[in-house]
Design goal:
The chain is globular, with a radius of gyration of 22 Å. The protein is built from 12 helices and 11 strands. The chain is α/β, with parallel strands linked by helices. It has helices spanning 10-13, 21-24, 55-63, 76-87, 104-111, 129-137, 158-165, 220-229, 237-246, 250-272, 295-304, 329-339, and strands spanning 70-73, 94-97, 115-118, 140-146, 170-174, 196-201, 214-217, 277-280, 287-292, 310-311, 321-325. The chain has 2 domains: 4-246, Type I PLP-dependent aspartate aminotransferase-like (Major domain) (Aspartate Aminotransferase, domain 2), CATH 3.40.640.10; 251-339, Aspartate Aminotransferase, domain 1. It is 34% helix and 15% strand.
Length: 344
């Protein structure tokens, strides 16, 4: 049986989190002289309140979870960093990654001097279950799953993830691109699996990358522990106000997701028709991974035409692969028109 108390770093169990006078205050106040703020009322002179101008309540309702099952971060990278700090002892513990995958897992682990075990995805970019089970038995503390995966774009098999969740290990499912996929989020399963953590972001489908807002969902005990190590006031008031306003237009958000999926299918069909493309991998995200005859030549051609894409050829299993983000109708038109001039 999974025992959370045996997975967290021992000294954090007894850690007293940072607490301000406002965290401890209950009631209504007229004068605030507790936080050494400047008295000028310009809309930003006060530290953010607990509900972040209604953002926490809005997200709780939108994602269908209670507030004690959710925590916000300054981008999902801050949340991933907190998760590693909560569970992994430097120079002792290790995480399991599945290349090719989001490179920040490895970067964050190296920053904290945490070991990295790698079990590569198979040729279809699916999880090698037997390899992962062997790694877990060798002392892995965290399993990092990106689904839909970056850079391949595909969802990971539900049955395989379920098998991993049955193990005595913390499983982190990074769902940065889940809104573009035709599959329910694993957020629905956080009460079923005490070892499950799900991260998402408002940077992709919600179009709010510049606000740097990430989300984490887990059972209340994990969220309570993450709150112990969360920096105070990590979400700024300007971002919170903007997000509340921009998230209110749900119809526009849904339309934009539909536009991305339509353009993804359009670009995929175009790339598959080109002789200089060997393969376009199926995608459940807002990008496509394509294997080219000569990716360096194609990338240079696009750069000369002022179009920037991502070279993923140095990642495991991605030789000669380029990643194309799905932009607006006009951006995809410009990309296709430029590629029509390319001669491999």
């Amino acid at each position: 049986m999974f025992d959370l108390s045996k997975k967290i770093r021992p000294h954090i169990a007894d850690l007293a989190p940072y607490s301000s006078a406002r965290d401890e205050f209950v009631g209504t106040a007229e004068v605030w002289l507790d936080a050494n703020e400047f008295y000028l009322d310009n809309g930003y002179n006060r530290y953010p309140n607990k509900d972040l101008n209604g953002l926490v309540s809005k997200l709780s309702t939108q994602f269908g979870v209670t507030k004690d099952r959710m925590i916000l971060g300054n981008g999902s990278d801050e949340i991933l960093d907190m998760i590693l700090r909560l569970f992994c002892e430097p120079s002792k513990d290790s995480i399991l990654t599945m290349p090719p995958t989001y490179s920040m897992y490895q970067v964050l682990a190296k920053i904290q001097n945490v070991g990295i075990q790698k079990v590569p995805l198979d040729s279809s970019f699916q999880i090698d279950l037997e390899g992962c089970l062997a790694a877990i038995s060798n002392g892995t503390k965290l399993v990092m799953i990106c689904s839909p995966n970056n850079p391949s774009g595909n969802l990971m098999a539900v049955s395989v993830i379920q098998k991993l969740l049955e193990q005595d290990v913390v499983v982190v499912i990074d769902e940065a691109y889940i809104q573009f996929a035709d599959q329910p989020s694993w957020v629905e399963q956080i009460d079923r699996y005490p070892n499950l953590i799900v991260t998402q972001t408002l940077s992709k489908a919600y179009g709010l990358a510049g606000l740097r807002l990430g989300l984490c969902f887990a059972n209340p005990e994990i969220i309570r522990l993450l709150n112990k190590i969360k920096p105070p006031y990590n979400i700024n008031t300007a971002s919170a106000k903007a997000a509340v306003e921009l998230l209110s237009n749900t119809e526009q958000i849904a339309q934009r997701k539909a536009d991305v999926i339509r353009n993804r299918e359009r670009l995929q069909a175009y790339l598959l028709s080109q002789s200089w493309i060997e393969k376009v991998y199926p995608s459940d995200a807002n990008f496509l991974l394509a294997k080219c005859m000569d990716n360096s030549e194609l990338r240079q051609f696009l750069l000369e035409n002022k179009i920037v894409i991502r070279d993923r050829s140095k990642q495991y299993g991605c030789e000669n692969c380029l990643r194309f983000s799905i932009g607006s109708n006009n951006e995809i038109d410009q990309l296709i028109n430029t590629l029509n001039q390319y001669q491999a």
